[in-house]
Structures are given as structure tokens and as C-alpha cells.
Amino acid sequence: MAAIVITGGSRGIGAATARLAARRGHRVCVGYRSDDDAAAAVVAEITGAGGEAFAVRADTSTTAGVETLFTAAGERLGRLDGLVNNAGVVAPKARVDQLDEDRINHLLRTNVTGPLLCARQAVLRMSTAYGGSGGVIVNVSSAAARIGGPGEYVDYAASKGAVDTLTAGLAAEVVGEGIRVNGVRPGLIDTDIHEPGRLERVVPSVPMKRAGRAEEVAEAILWLLSDASSYVTGATLDVSGGR
């Protein structure tokens, strides 16, 4: 039974991952930023089915928020075996010449600074160099990192490109300390992160001609967290319907 922290765990891919992890017998810390009701609903569903989960409200775009999350997780879980770096935001459709500093900085703080800060805390707890017993980090990127998001959100795509680089670099940095680091790149997934009408507009460009489900991404994440992927590190798996 592993002890796992999932950021952005109150909705979408994070919530699906929390539910699946609990069904697989893991103890789950559901990190979330603001939606108390959604986080409580995820925890209630898990515990109602006999699983173990609790929620921690914390803004992972800040050092204080990340420390709050990991301190609370440590108090409840003891050791840490896995981190799913899932928290992320996207802004309304815009070209680069329409972006402003506030939008860019908010997006980068959440999508880049946050995962780096969370990875730091995970390494401090899991690395054999700090007395830990190893563990796994899975970073949630996006197919936008490959496609670039032209005409929609190049800033978001750039932030997810940074997540891919984090995966590659951190994996090489801690591979000798008992930690595996991998990523997933979801494609067009049916969650509430999209603006109205986007799913219908983009589906024709997906080779499989449908949007993916959050549960399908969660399956990939749980595989990367498991011993079944014990010889996999530094990899990023596309879960994008061929797009």
C-alpha cells in the first residue's frame, strides 16, 4: 500500500487518479486549491467505498502552500511513496500578441513553479540521500507541449514544455537515489478545463475521433506509479488518441 500525494485532486484527471489509486489500495492525499465541496466529494466517494483519503487545501503555486500540503500529508501518511504533479491552469483562448504579464505569470507560477516546488518536497522525503526509501513522481504535462497551442494558448503549451523538461532532468538527477520520475501528456480529455465548445471543435483533429476520459489518463498514471513500470524513468507517455 503506497502513500500518494495528488495535486489538483478535486476535479478532472486529479480526481480520477485519486479514485483509481484508492481502489488499488493506496492511501491518498488529495491536494486542492479552492473548491472545498469538490474535494470533499472525492474524499467521501473514496472513503465510502472503503478506501483511505483526505483532502488538504493548499495553493501549490507558492512555497507556503506547498509546505502546508506536504506537512499535512506527512502527518497523516508518514512516509511518502508517490507524487502526482497534476495541478494546472489554462487561460482563455488568445494569441501571443494578446497576452499580458499577469496572465503569463499566473500560469507559469501554477504550471511550472508549483511542480518544481512539489518535486523538491517529494525528493526531500523520498530520496535515499535524505534517508528516504525511494518513490515515484509522475508529472502531468499536455500534448500541447508538442503541438504548441497556436492561436489558443502558446503560454500554456510553453509551460507544459517546461514540465517535460522537468521530467527528463529530474529523472536523471535522482535516478541513483531510488526515485523514478516520469510524465504523461494527455491530449483532448473531457474535463471542465476546456472552454465551452472546444471539445467539439477539436475532436475532428484527433485520429481516434473522440475525446479521452480522465479515467484513461489515470490508468497511465497508476501504471507509472506501480512496480509494473519499475524499469521506466525519464519517459513521458502520450495519452492523446494519436494526436
Verbal overview:
The chain is of the alpha/beta class and 243 residues long. The protein contains eight helices and seven strands; from the N terminus they run E-H-E-H-E-H-E-H-E-H-H-E-H-H-E. It has one domain: NAD(P)-binding Rossmann-like Domain (Rossmann fold), CATH 3.40.50.720. Strands 3-2-1-4-5-6-7 form a seven-stranded parallel β-sheet, with helices on both faces. Helix 1 crosses helix 8, helix 3 runs parallel beside helix 4 and helix 4 runs parallel beside helix 6. It is globular and about 45 Å long.
Question: How would you describe this structure in keywords?
Answer:
8 helices; 243 residues; 7 strands; seven-stranded parallel β-sheet; globular; alpha/beta; 16% strand; Rossmann fold
Total of DSSP H or I helical runs spanning 4+ residues: 8
What overall geometry do the principal axes of the alpha carbons give? globular
The appropriate CATH architecture is 3-Layer(aba) Sandwich
Mean pLDDT: 96
Distance between the termini: 35 Å
**Mind telling me the CATH superfamily name?**
NAD(P)-binding Rossmann-like Domain
Strands ordered across the widest β-sheet: 3-2-1-4-5-6-7
The CATH topology is what? Answer: Rossmann fold
Helix content: 40-55%
CATH class: Alpha Beta
Please write the string of helix (H) and strand (E) elements. Answer: EHEHEHEHEHHEHHE
Number of strands: 7
Query: What does the main sheet amount to?
Result: 7 strands, parallel
Give the C-alpha Rg.
Answer: 17 Å
Q: Spans of 5+ residues with little confidence (pLDDT < 50)?
A: none
Query: How does the helix and strand content classify structurally?
Result: alpha/beta
Strand content: 15-25%
Number of domains: 1
